């Protein structure tokens, strides 16, 4: 059997696992009765679909609540059929589901679903990404006051930001064990900070709804801007933004893994 033939047979076998119409051409290759072969393919197919559904449910529990189990299971099946897994880690399956939802005609009346899914994927990823030793206010105080505006802050790998045109954060929070109320207006924009405490303080991923000023400040820092530039951007977006209490809150949540000062002839790393 040549490599080309083997590859073709493997592709045909994989297709038959997904589509019952692809089983018939393969039947002559298997011993035994055709009906038994069809039944085996059906079992494999059912197990595969169940795996897609359970994996997506693990990553998108709020989306499952919003859509209902039957619709969600159909969504997971359609997604699995059209998006091959490229990782041996099941935790990576479902990364493209938010974009997939945006293409479905049945979901168009509910445009917030795409951002809810994006938020859930951020939460899902934050659970697995590392939490590095956190920078502290004591380390921040080690810099000269005249250099504070030139500092660079690096966010934890397990932190993420999501800016949404919809009430995505409140919708997510309303479907948690300690639930808030569903927002009266789902078209109200929201900014979400996704973060996870150090494992010694608990492993549960948190989602905070933050103000526009906080969002632009954290996004600026994440993009490599200095503290001074981030503060200016925040104040332009939200003139009443209280930067000092926000900064203290961010350090309390251990959002930063490094503080660095980059100037000509100066490099002070306070991560150690």
Structural features, described:
By secondary structure, this protein is an alpha+beta fold. It folds into 2 domains: 1-110, no CATH class; 125-272, no CATH class. Helix content is 47%, strand content 12%. The chain has 11 helices and 6 strands. It has helices at residues 3-18, 34-59, 61-67, 69-82, 97-102, 112-128, 137-141, 168-173, 212-222, 227-237, 243-252, and strands at 151-155, 160-164, 190-195, 206-210, 256-263, 266-269. The strands form 2 sheets. A 3-stranded antiparallel β-sheet has the order 1-5-6, with no helix packed on it. A 3-stranded antiparallel β-sheet has the order 2-3-4. β5 (256-263) and β6 (266-269) form a beta hairpin. α2 crosses α4 and α9 (212-222) packs antiparallel against α10. The chain is elongated. It starts with a helix and ends with a strand.
